[in-house]
Amino acid sequence: MKKFMDWLSNSFAPKAKKLTQRPSVAGLSSAMQKLIPFILTGSIVFFYNVFRSYISVLPDLSTISNYSFGLIGLIAAFMVANQYMEKFNHRQYAITAGIVSICSLMMFLHPVAAEEGVYEMDRIGPTGILIGVIVGMGVSVIFHYYAKLKLFKESNVPDFVIEWINNIIPIFASLAFWAALTFGLKIDIFAVIIGAFGPIQSFGQSLPGLILLVLIPAFFYSMGISTWLWSAIQNPIFIAGIAANTLAVQQGMDPSNIVTNEVVYSIGLIMMGGTGATLALNIMMLFSKSKKLKTLGRICIWPSIFNINEPLVFSTPVVMNPLLMMPMWINSIVGSCVVWFVMKGGLLNIPSELMQLAQIPAPISSVILTSDFRAVLWYVLLFGIYFGVWYPFFKVYEKEVLAEEIEEAKEPTFINTTESVA
Asked: Which of 174, 15, 16 is closest to 105 using CA atoms?
């Protein structure tokens, strides 16, 4: 174990952190974070609709959701190109590249356009988020390599003319590329991309897919690398899953996709207290014999209740602490398996509405999202499981901390007895 931890600490973690700082990775991660407000706006409307279903006089706010979350593919196209230009230090193209990405994505509606000009707008909604990401990346590549050419750098042409030319060329090249594929070769790019990523989506909706989508972020998080890094991989799978569930319910069928943001994060069963199910660890710390751990437990308990565990993970610390990293990984696997089999077995409803309520304490969020009071029972049972996993590791770590505190107490205290002379 010691050799493994040394390798993680001294070799793997530094290289992984360096990778996350590369513009090609950081840009995508940043873009996904900037999508969150639009997703949450839609979530608020869906949450509001829970009350509206009981109070019919409340106004219909679906339009707000349709023009926020309902356009998430279009927004993703802009944000990806925009953030790539920021991270690659081509800030002069940040807005332009984003707008070109939107224009490019709109081309993909052409193959399904009706004669009267009616378009299938679902292609720029939740199912189009992956398409938006790819379009944004494609446009970014063109703008990035054009910017590296630094044309007209030594030219005597007026600056404003050079700026026009340096925008016109990559704009034209980007739109020409997508137009050649869409209108020239008659390729339905939307269908091609969805078909190519179909196997990935299918795997993502399997039990191994769920485990990996939960475990991998937890593994890197235990080394101090933010879980946001993986949102670019998770979100297309999550959003496509919940969109399919919503459509299934509208068609009178039962939802079947378990791997959604609602299940992984919002219902608070897999992420009880945050990544790695750290709420149980926080509860143990509240009753610890160690002054340090008890104090930290009191400080971190309120964020933990709202499924925010950064204060706990970085202060305890869990990060790069082999005794506390292991249970985080184990709980990520165990929690995923329990929730998967419980939902597949019909013992808990599968969420069918997009409501990202990760910061609403469970089991309140659990019941709201599943519309199933059995969620309270599974919350209690899973808490017991997580507690059992954390307990032996925590007690060993607590013993180490107590030993350190005893040693610190034995150290002599030096008091300055020198009196000042007037």
From this structure: 174
What CA–CA distance (Å, rounded) separates 332 from 309?
Answer: 14
Domain-embedded: residue 167: yes
Among candidate residues 173, 196, 219, the one where a domain is terminated: 196
Range of the structural domain that residue 315 is part of? 203-409
**Are 166 and 246 in a shared domain?**
no
DSSP per-residue codes, 282-350: HHHHHT-S-HHHHHHHHHHHHHHHTT--HHHHHHTT-TT-HHHHHHHHHHHHHHHHHHHHHHHTTSSPP
Rg (CA), the chain: 26
Residue 175 lies in a domain: yes
Sorting pLDDT into bands at 50, 70 and 90, what band is 45? confident
188-241 pLDDT, tens digit per residue, is: 888 888 888 888 888 999 999 999 999 999 998 888 777 877 887 888 899 889
pLDDT of residue 9: 67
Looking at the structure, do residues 173 and 229 belong to the same domain, yes or no? no
177 and 254 belong to one structural domain: no
- Please state the pTM of the whole predicted model: 0.78
Same domain, residue pair 207 and 315: yes
Burial of 390 (0-12, 13-18, 19+ CB in 10 A): buried
